[in-house]
Amino acid sequence: MSAQFTEDGAPSPDTPPAFQAVDAHAAYDGVTVLDGVSLDVPAGQTMAVLGPNGSGKSTLMRAMLGVVPLTSGRILLHGTPLRRFRDWRRIGYVPQRLTAGGAVPATVREIVASGQVARRRRLSLPTRADRAAVDDALATVDLSDRAGDAVRELSGGQQQRVLIARALAGRPDTFVMDEPMAGVDAENQRALARAITHLRDQGSTVVLVLHELGPLEEVIERAVVLEHGRIVHDGPPPEATGECARPGHEHQHPHPDPNDPDPAHATAPSEMVRLEVPRRD
Ligand SMILES: Nc1ncnc2c1ncn2[C@@H]1O[C@H](COP(=O)(O)OP(=O)(O)OP(=O)(O)O)[C@@H](O)[C@H]1O
Predict the structure, then answer these.
(1) Of 49, 99, 88, 48, which is closest to residue 66 (Cα–Cα)?
(2) Which Pfam families does the record match to this protein (predicted)?
(3) Domains in the chain, please, with CATH?
(4) Could you tell me the distance, in angstroms and rounded to a whole number, from the CA of residue 41 to the centre of ligand 1?
(5) CB count, 10 Å around CB of 59?
(6) Which residue blocks in the chain are alpha helix, DSSP H?
(7) Could you report the per-residue pLDDT of 69-84, keeping only the tens digit for each?
(8) Residue of the nearest CA to atom 3 in ligand 1?
């Protein structure tokens, strides 16, 4: 457990939030996408960002990492304003889907080890601790036995686990995951949920964009729901209703799976999970 936590696992009183957004606004081509988002994510929290397509979830993640500039407002990472933040080794970002490695013959182990490049000194070789971290990351996502296989031979769900292992290999304490469950079959979703539970249990901060809670329901401590770039719910995870909420329903994300050439397999937005969100009055 990291030094920013007390012995009983709670964040130390002087530990700043992992993320802070203060009245954050962002726009693409003059169109507002984040419309005054204020949010603190305490260190060690596992938080989901939910909301309909186009509500600004990914933009919020990208803004928190400085990839999308704000038009006004402020972002702080671990108490430091974004423009002065240098400790990027603390941050593990898991993008939506694997792109690098899909076309090149990289092995699973190579892709996972690439997550350590940023923390290594220039021209230095991996240390024993680095190699052990890669082994641990592979074990956490249950892919130790696939380490030597080409990534392109893996299913989309397994590739998603590789991406999480790549973020883990850099030994960050703060994770941002953009729809890790999207287009992932039930078995891989469970493996991902185990890996995310492991991160939570070791005291990491985990912020995830999700379309539904699914197997992560037990893991998520807090849900923020966006609509039109504004927070409409911030608190306990809302309950899912509708077709997708039924036990055994295998949710499919409405975005087409890049590994599935058949567009008929994309789910229509009307089948999306509906969330019962208490309104803020
Ligand atoms: N790079 C971009 N340039 C222009 N518009 C963009 C860009 N990225 C996103 N948008 C638009 O901004 C809005 C919010 O997009 P964003 O991806 O943040 O939403 P989201 O809630 O993550 O959606 P989804 O659930 O579909 O991934 C959408 O209308 C989207 O079309």
Answers:
(1) 88
(2) ABC_tran
(3) 19-276 (3.40.50.300)
(4) 22
(5) 21
(6) 57-64, 108-113, 128-140, 156-169, 186-201
(7) 999 999 999 999 999 9
(8) 28
pLDDT single digits (tens) 15-35: 899 999 999 999 999 999 999
Residue 59 Cα, ligand 1 centroid: separation in angstroms?
A: 6
For residue 117, the one-letter residue type is: V
Residue 144 carries which side chain, given as an amino acid letter?
A: S
Closest CA to 236 of 252, 217, 211: 217
Using the mean position of ligand 1's atoms as its centre, give its distance from the Cα of residue 78 in Å: 26
Decide: 232 and 225 in contact? Cβ < 8 Å.
yes
HSE-up of residue 251 (Cα within 13 Å, Cβ side): 27
What ipTM does the predicted assembly reach? 0.96
Half-sphere exposure of 261 (CA within 13 A, CB side): 0
95: pLDDT confidence band, cut at 50, 70 and 90? confident
C-beta of 53 in contact with ligand 1 (< 6 A): yes
| Among protein residues, the one whose CA lies closest to atom 5 of ligand 1 | 28
Ligand 1 atom index nearest CA of 55: 21
